[in-house]
Write a structure and sequence with these properties.
The complex is a heterodimer of chains A (367) and B (395).
Chain A (H helix, E strand, L loop, with lengths): L30 E5 L1 H8 L6 H9 L3 E5 L1 H12 L7 E6 L6 H14 L3 E5 L3 H5 L5 E2 L7 E2 L1 H22 L7 E2 L5 E2 L5 H10 L1 H20 L5 E6 L25 H9 L7 E7 L14 H13 L3 E4 L5 H13 L11 H11 L3 H8 L3
Parallel strand pairs in A: 3-10, 3-11, 4-9, 9-10
Antiparallel strand pairs in A: 1-2, 5-6, 7-8
Chain B lengths: L15 H7 L20 H13 L2 H35 L8 H11 L16 H4 L24 H26 L15 E3 L2 H8 L5 H15 L8 H5 L2 E3 L1 H4 L8 E2 L5 E9 L2 E8 L6 E3 L10 H13 L7 E7 L3 H16 L5 H9 L30
Parallel strand pairs in B: 6-7
Antiparallel strand pairs in B: 1-2, 3-4, 4-5, 5-7
Classes of the chains: A alpha/beta (367), B alpha+beta (395).
Chain lengths: 367, 395
């Protein structure tokens, strides 16, 4: 079993010593860097890594993410950002299974290391397609709450940003009246707001809205820097959802309170932050999967909301990346057939998977 | 002396040797059949004739009558055929003198178009020899005495052939002994080269011998021939043996591998239209490539199933061209299996121009270069499907 620590020198060409995403540059392209167990637990316990990828990392004894061009591009931009200008929106797009979620995970790690407050939605379609119980909102007429999902999300937020929130000590700027007896006064710490949301499912969604509002204000007043990472953003504009009213009519995602909250956060009317979003064809129902491109996936409404944004394509593996991936599998003993390690074997794997990351992972799996 | 006029019995030109070999009896006789000729120049001859005809039995008489009728019939048919040919030539506006059998066939096809499936059921006009089966010449003379010594075996030609093989075998043995006795032991005789030909089938042998054989007799004959041709000095009788062998078609038709073409940027490429069931694929294999594949403008994932991807990769892997050529294919029709099979054939056929002859032969043996002729079998009436029957009820 091989463990890599920052001080250990690495002799393989497919691994890199540089464990801090802030320092990842072009020459790290195609190389794996490992994420420690504690960081993984902190960042991804509420979601963020694709299920099979996560299981594979547990089987192969350690989460190692490949540094790829889209992530490197994003990191360069984020390092150079002028945080006084309005927030930049970056949209990752590409075929399903080409590595968008993993790139977002990489950026999340970057944000965490850079001391940014992470506002992370692991996978939006979970709220749209598999809601655990939507209730009509009390405060907003004709809108719907996600009590259980909001509680989960607040928990995820506090896990990700726990130590940072303690350090920052942000305070509310408004009074929030939840009911006759419950109230959050001005100047109370944000952690109180989060705790209230986690304990009271009824008010959780509104807590989320309030929290996002506060973070936006905090960023504007330079008290903190916010990184918004949303996977499957196009699901907010999906034409279908599994939520139905009493009269069996479908509730569109645009009628969710959570949607409003995150859409307001992803508007470019604030600064001192960055917004990284991904659009995926699998986040939409099958009728809307013809093209992976942002304009098609976001639809008119979504495009108008996000415009102007910086599109970043996540392509299939390049030759170097592909060989690096195979080297990793070989070293981890995941590719056990001796023929798979030969030149011919690699050529066959490359051809049959079409250099597509997800296809390669499935092809190489024993099941 | 009345003499039987014998029928023309000639199988085909290549068996000229056989003919002279088989029919020791004279084939053409002067004079013609004159059974009922009562008037004669020489009264003496008449008496002789009358005495001869009296000795003939009724069976002999009827046999000779039948022979005469057949002979006349064939003559009549030949006459009609020739006249008909001239008529056809006139109809088609061609020169009657140089009107060949192919011209006749073409004319018939034009004048009597037929939608019938079997070619043998369609209208035809051929030389009577090709239509009416040959008969043996008279096997016995006026007195009923057979010409052939093996006549009473009822298959004289067959047994003659068998006997002659034995005789020739002995001759070859004697030849071998002579060679050995002369002390030229080191000289190895040239081997009889039988590759590329096979023994002619039973039907053909029957046509040559004009006798029907049982399967056992045919097998026996072939075994004898095999034994004969395995004699070290059998090359001496090569001509004799080759009369009973036919060339295999595959040796004659060798497919020409097309030359590589060049596109604008100078890269070599080859195209092929391949089919499988009802799907058509147009495949272009471009050399100096990196292994890029495009099927209907998408990548390999046009085929979702692993087995279809394996079909595509098979010819490239087999010929070691994976990663060295690019493939551009368009395919339509039928289902995924047929489409991938069509593309596979297309890639294999294109790769012939890129690889050496040894690899082409290996590909052919692997079945990569053969068109798959299997199509969906039709459903038959009275059955549920092509083969499936309805439930059988005993009563």
């Amino acid at each position: 079993m091989i463990r890599f620590s920052p001080t250990e020198t690495i002799t393989n060409t497919f691994r890199t010593n540089e464990l801090d995403p802030i320092n990842h540059r072009k020459d790290h392209d195609g190389r794996f860097y490992s994420i420690s167990q504690s960081v993984k637990k902190q960042l991804f316990s509420g979601g963020g890594l694709p299920k099979e990828y996560k299981e594979l990392s547990e089987t192969l004894n350690g989460l190692s993410i490949m540094v790829r061009k889209p992530a490197i591009e994003l990191i360069t931009y984020l390092n150079k950002t002028n945080f006084d200008a309005p927030v930049n929106r970056y949209v990752l797009y590409g075929k399903t299974g080409s590595g968008k979620s993993v790139s977002l995970a990489h950026i999340l790690h970057y944000g965490s290391n850079a001391g940014m407050v992470l506002v992370h939605v692991p996978w939006v379609p979970n709220w749209v397609r598999f809601p655990k119980g939507c209730t009509p909102s009390v405060i907003h007429p004709n809108k719907y709450d996600h009590p259980i999902e909001s509680v989960e999300w607040l928990r995820h937020f506090s896990t990700q940003n726990g130590p940072l929130m303690q350090k920052l000590e942000l305070k509310t700027t408004e009074t929030y009246t939840w009911s006759k007896r419950e109230m959050t006064a001005v100047g109370s710490p944000l952690s109180e707001l989060i705790d209230l949301g986690m304990n009271r499912a009824k008010h959780a969604t509104d807590c989320v809205t309030a929290l996002l509002c506060e973070l936006k204000k905090a960023a504007l007043s330079k008290r903190c820097r916010v990184l918004v990472v949303i996977d499957g953003f196009n699901s907010f504009f999906s034409p279908k959802s599994r939520v139905r009213r009493e009269d069996k009519s479908i509730v569109l995602p645009t009628e969710f309170v959570l949607t409003d909250a995150f859409l307001s956060l992803t508007r470019n009317d604030w600064n001192n932050g960055a917004i990284v979003v991904s659009v995926d064809a699998s986040a939409h129902p099958s009728e809307l999967r013809e093209s992976p491109l942002p304009r098609y996936q976001l639809g008119k409404q979504g495009f108008e909301h996000l415009d102007p944004f910086i599109p970043i394509e996540v392509p299939n593996y390049s030759e170097k990346e592909f060989h690096s991936q195979i080297d990793y599998y070989v070293e981890r003993n995941w590719l056990q057939q001796p023929k798979a390690r030969t030149e011919r074997g690699r050529a066959e794997l490359s051809f049959t998977s079409g250099n597509h990351p997800l296809s390669l992972m499935k092809l190489v799996a024993p099941y | 002396m009345a003499v039987l006029r014998e029928l023309v019995v000639f199988p085909s030109k290549c068996f000229r040797g056989v003919r002279s070999y088989f029919f020791s009896a004279p084939l053409f006789q002067n004079g013609s059949l004159k059974l009922n000729e009562s008037v004669s120049k020489d009264g003496h001859a008449l008496d002789f004739e009358q005495s001869d005809t009296k000795k003939m039995s009724k069976a002999m008489k009827s046999y000779m009558e039948r022979a005469k009728i057949h002979d006349n019939f064939i003559k009549q048919q030949l006459h009609e055929y020739n006249i008909g040919k001239r008529h056809l030539a006139n109809m088609m506006g061609k020169d009657p003198e140089f009107f060949t059998q192919t011209d006749v066939d073409e004319a018939i096809r034009y004048l009597f178009p037929s939608g019938l499936f079997d070619p043998r059921a369609r209208p035809m006009m051929k030389h009577p020899d090709e239509i009416y089966p040959k008969r043996k010449a008279a096997e016995f003379d006026v007195n009923g005495r057979p010409y052939h010594s093996l006549f009473y075996t009822s298959k004289p030609n067959y047994y003659t052939l068998m006997h002659d093989l034995a005789v020739k075998f002995k001759q070859l043995d004697r030849h071998e002994d002579k060679i050995i006795s002369r002390g030229i032991q080191n000289q190895k005789p040239t081997e009889l080269f039988l590759f590329g030909s096979e023994w002619i089938p039973k039907q053909k042998i029957e046509n040559v011998l004009l006798e029907s054989l049982t399967d056992a007799q045919y097998v026996n004959l072939i075994k004898t021939f095999e034994r004969f041709s395995q004699h070290p000095y059998s090359v001496i009788e090569k001509d004799f043996i080759m009369q009973f062998r036919r060339q295999l078609a595959a040796q004659v038709e060798i497919q020409q591998v097309p030359e590589l073409m060049r596109d604008e940027s100078g890269r070599p490429y080859m195209t092929y239209n391949a089919r499988r069931k009802t799907s058509n694929a147009t495949v272009k294999v471009i050399g100096q490539g990196t292994g890029v594949i495009s099927i209907n403008e998408t990548d390999i994932h046009f085929f979702q199933r692993e087995q279809d991807k394996k079909q595509i990769i098979f010819p490239l892997q087999f010929s070691d061209m994976l990663g060295k050529v690019d493939v551009v294919a368009t395919v339509d029709g039928c289902g995924t299996s047929a489409q991938s099979g069509a593309i596979r054939l297309g890639i294999s056929m294109c790769l012939r121009s890129f690889v050496n002859a040894e690899t082409i032969e290996r590909m052919r043996l692997a079945g990569l270069l053969s068109f798959d002729p299997r199509t969906r079998e039709r459903k038959k009436p009275g059955q549920a499907g092509a083969r499936k029957k309805f439930t059988w009820k005993k009563r």
